[in-house]
Amino acid sequence: NTTTTGQRPRSHLPSTKLEQPVKSRAAYIYPVLGATRAPSSGAPVLQTTGTTASTYPSSASRSVGEAMARKKIREYDSKRLLKEHLKRLAGIDLQILSAQVTQSTDFTELSNQEPWLSSMKLVVKPDMLFGKRGKSGLVALNLDLAQVRQFVKERLGVEVEMGGCKAPITTFIVEPFVPHDQEYYLSIMSDRLGCTISFSECGGIEIEENWDKVKTIFLPTEKPMTLDACAPLIATLPLEVRTKIGDFIRGSFSVFQDLDFSFMEMNPFTLVNGEPYPLDMRGELDDTAAFKNFKKWGDIEFPLPFGRVLSPSESYIHELDEKV
């Protein structure tokens, strides 16, 4: 059941389509003629880039009842949820650290709460639900805390334009600077019939230029991410890292399902002392599942899309909804 296609997942398609009501996400993800349903056995379907054949479910079969309330969350929250629940569900203790900075942040108080900020070299970047921050010169590396404070001061509240949308920067994420050689890519996306999992050992800001190296499987709904299911994604990795990365992919998938993520992307993640370490992460949650996840999600925030401003009537409805 190995086939090939040159289509990219939803995260790499034009953002203008993603903000519109979705009639059929399959039309955006895999616009392939002659697509056929996944095997009835429920086996994962491997897909690598190349031609125009596919064994993914057809657009017609995926368009009914597929709507999902996908809400983007900040990178800070994506990493917080992954760190907390990956340990609970898979026994993997991610050694990631992060701090959030806004207009109200007191750096002295923050450094007291997070002592590592004063003792480590740091990375700072906007946490505003838009991508390509590195290519836009909005990521600063290898700074001390004083330099981070200056970087934030010069950019906080400054309006920037990304993807045709303009808005001020209001929120930053600060993390340890992690020197690394290898960058990996991982994304998981759900729809009504299952999940699409993509992995590459050539991640980073040039992922789109290296899309021919991405491996993708489709896992039908209710089918677990077993060792056999994961095997095609990691088959070409060196033996010394294959098991560790395979366990990380499977553990991330467990978090994805348990917390009702609808989209999760790490680009890149790396290995630090042999352990997985997400450097850049994006996440979306199915907010219709909030009623059963409020304890797991904790104090989660669902920011408006970058550049989006509520009208007075929308603000009133939003305030009412927050009280329900």
From TrEMBL:
GO terms for molecular function: succinate-CoA ligase (ADP-forming) activity. One of its GO terms (cellular component) is succinate-CoA ligase complex. SUPFAM superfamilies: Glutathione synthetase ATP-binding domain-like (SSF56059). One of its GO terms (biological process) is succinyl-CoA metabolic process. Pfam families: Citrate_synth_N. Transmembrane segments: none annotated. Residues 1-18, 46-62 have a biased composition (Polar residues). Gene3D superfamilies: 3.30.470.110. Residues 1-20, 41-63 are annotated as: Disordered. It comes from the Eukaryota. Residues 69-297 form the ATP-citrate synthase ATP-grasp domain. This is ATP-citrate synthase ATP-grasp domain-containing protein. It comes from Aegilops tauschii subsp. strangulata (Goatgrass).
